[in-house]
């Protein structure tokens, strides 16, 4: 059984991402792991209960509420119902979280992010985590309307398009019968590919090696990556963008930032492969 892991740092973004994680888990028939990675930095509240004094951060109530909410949604669904488990990794480092994900055969890690901001209530850096994990990291912007995925767009330089990424996307998209578009943007310093030649390369190197009927090729002549991304999202109705960490176009799509600072112009989830 595959596992989906959601990073829970007790933020609204994490709660939003957990709901997206449940939808994904149901569709790809995986179990859902909610990793509580909250780092408490405020003052402890002391309470007297039955003659004893204990310290309360309020975190336990939040974790129970989130688990109960996910359970409620899960029971209201028809079809496959993921098993939902909670694990406590308070103050965990990227190495600890990555090690847990590897040992438990996690197929995807999901994290909620605030567009235009980088505030997190955990010590985990998405940028550092991507250097240690062996599965993709899905960054879900707070405010994105949770819905079934209809179109994924892998932004790549066709000559360096990773076949393992395309195969993963085909498996991921299949339950939704979603389109998987390989958007070729020529990398700076490389010669442009004529459309007919690019299509022949796509057919020979991708189509003939990945069995998925809804695999599409999108050659992009636009040199401005930011403008191209806007077309993908608002013109083509893309529900999820896909990039390889620190590879071609990564910095341009993120506006020169790292995975720790989610830009405001990205209004859909971003799936990043290590």
Q: What would you note in describing this structure?
A:
Helix 1 (about 10-30) runs parallel beside helix 2. This protein has two domains: about 1-140, HUPs (Rossmann fold), CATH 3.40.50.620; about 150-274, Rossmann fold. It has helices spanning about 10-30, 60-75, 95-105, 125-130, 165-175, 195-205, 225-235, 250-255, and strands spanning about 1-10, 30-35, 45-50, 50-55, 85-90, 105-115, 135-140, 150-155, 180-185, 215-220, 240-245, 270-274. It is of the alpha/beta class and about 270 residues long. The strands form two sheets. A ten-stranded mixed beta sheet has the order 5-2-1-6-7-12-11-8-9-10, with helices on both faces. It has a two-stranded antiparallel sheet with strand order 3-4. The longest helix is centred in the first third of the chain and has 18 residues, at about 60-75. Residues about 40-60 have low confidence and may be disordered.
